[in-house]
């Protein structure tokens, strides 16, 4: 009630009269006052420095999903003329081309005959293309190759190859095994020559969903500059007789095959990578002989390994990887004996957790490995109710270790692999 009492006191207090007078005449001065014109501008709005605008775009795109990034950058490009080109350069940095129509429109946009085309073509860093022989307006080999050579700074290239099903037998949602029985033509010499004349690709991802096992070897012969390789789908088979060993020194290899390739294939592929290979990632289980060979052969350089499951044999092989900094395994029931033998320099651990997972050995390394900075857990089949989960959270919190928990296997793999984000360019 105090504020109402204040109003009552003010209204009831005695009024006091004051005599106030104003002199509104303009005094005369002996000196003339100079006339200063007020500057006018056709655009009085203060413009934000372009460097700040670009930083805002970078920060806004960081961590956003593909659709959000694309929508945001397209909106930025429409704000004003000064924002248009920086936003378009960001938008063209990562490009996806899935149809012939989209690729032709992209080629028009990066036409080197125009200054704008040269700028946008030079901005492309990664490209994802889908060559689907089963689609009526699918991207052709030559059009794809012409698009690649228009991007001089292209470093990352992802190609998905789909074969052509027999008439009337194309069933939507058919299993991967059936899709891989479709035939697809090999890359012709003109396409390969165009690709050789283009940019020096350092990272290649090839997903082969056809029965053509030779397409991979054709592409590997195009770029001697490769450092990172991702291959999946149809398991490659060495031609007979086998060609010269793959000349590139890879630093990273990730595979996802329906069936395990032979040891001979990996000997051919990694012949010149004995001193350079640091990362091995397998989305599907390889044969024990192949996995043990790869770990044992490259144990002196391996810093990161991602496995779907870890057998006792693989666990014994991993003990000899003295430089390992990151270890990830999806299977919640994989051998946990490997953890106590992982090196002191271990920085990141990721694993699957269900209600029966033996967690104590993992808790022990979290407590003792001083270099450990991150732990990622995929919880499934009762993992969120594990009796030691609270202890895991507390231990990570006390050590200042970043703990990420998820029940989505796709999110788990994304966190572990940290694949490059690609913005889909819709044209």
UniProtKB/TrEMBL annotation:
Q: Which domain of life is it from?
A: Eukaryota
Write down the Gene3D superfamilies for this protein, in alphabetical order.
Ribonuclease Inhibitor (3.80.10.10)
Q: Which InterPro entries match?
A: LRR_dom_sf
The name this protein carries in UniProt is F-box domain-containing protein
Q: Which organism is it from?
A: Paramarasmius palmivorus
């Amino acid at each position: 009630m105090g504020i109402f009492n204040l109003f009552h006191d003010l209204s009831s207090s005695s009024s006091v009269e004051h005599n106030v007078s104003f002199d509104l005449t303009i005094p005369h001065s002996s000196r003339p006052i100079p006339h200063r014109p007020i500057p006018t501008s056709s655009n009085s709005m203060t413009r934000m420095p372009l460097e700040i605008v670009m930083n805002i775009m970078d920060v806004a795109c960081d961590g956003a999903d593909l659709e959000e990034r694309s929508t945001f950058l397209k909106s930025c490009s429409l704000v004003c003329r000064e924002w248009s080109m920086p936003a378009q350069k960001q938008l063209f940095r990562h490009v996806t081309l899935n149809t012939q129509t989209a690729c032709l429109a992209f080629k028009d946009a990066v036409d080197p005959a125009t200054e704008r085309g040269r700028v946008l073509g030079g901005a492309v860093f990664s490209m994802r293309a889908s060559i689907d022989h089963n689609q009526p307006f699918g991207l052709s080999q030559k059009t794809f190759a012409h698009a690649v050579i228009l991007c001089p700074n292209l470093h990352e290239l992802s190609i998905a190859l789909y074969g052509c099903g027999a008439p009337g037998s194309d069933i939507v949602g058919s299993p991967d095994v059936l899709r891989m029985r479709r035939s697809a033509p090999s890359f012709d010499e003109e396409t390969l020559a165009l690709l050789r004349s283009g940019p020096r690709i350092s990272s290649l991802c090839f997903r082969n969903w056809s029965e053509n096992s030779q397409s991979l070897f054709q592409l590997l012969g195009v770029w001697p500059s490769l450092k990172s390789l991702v291959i999946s789908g149809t398991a490659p088979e060495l031609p007979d007789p086998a060609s010269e060993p793959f000349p590139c020194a890879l630093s990273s290899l990730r595979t996802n095959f329906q069936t395990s390739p032979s040891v001979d294939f990996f000997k051919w592929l990694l012949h010149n990578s004995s001193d350079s290979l640091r990362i091995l990632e397998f989305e599907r289980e390889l044969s024990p002989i192949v996995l043990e060979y790869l770990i044992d052969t490259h144990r002196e350089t391996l810093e990161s390994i991602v496995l779907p499951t870890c057998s006792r044999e693989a666990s014994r092989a991993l003990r000899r990887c003295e430089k390992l900094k990151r270890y990830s395994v999806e299977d919640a029931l994989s051998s946990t004996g490997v953890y106590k033998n992982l090196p002191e320099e271990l920085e990141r651990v990721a694993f699957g957790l269900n209600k029966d997972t033996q967690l104590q050995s993992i808790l022990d390394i979290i407590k003792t490995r001083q270099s450990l900075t991150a732990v990622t857990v995929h919880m499934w089949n009762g993992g969120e109710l594990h009796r030691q989960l609270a202890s895991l959270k507390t231990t990570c919190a006390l050590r200042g270790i970043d703990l990420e928990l998820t029940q989505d296997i796709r999110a788990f793999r994304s966190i572990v692999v940290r694949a490059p984000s690609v913005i889909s360019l819709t044209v």
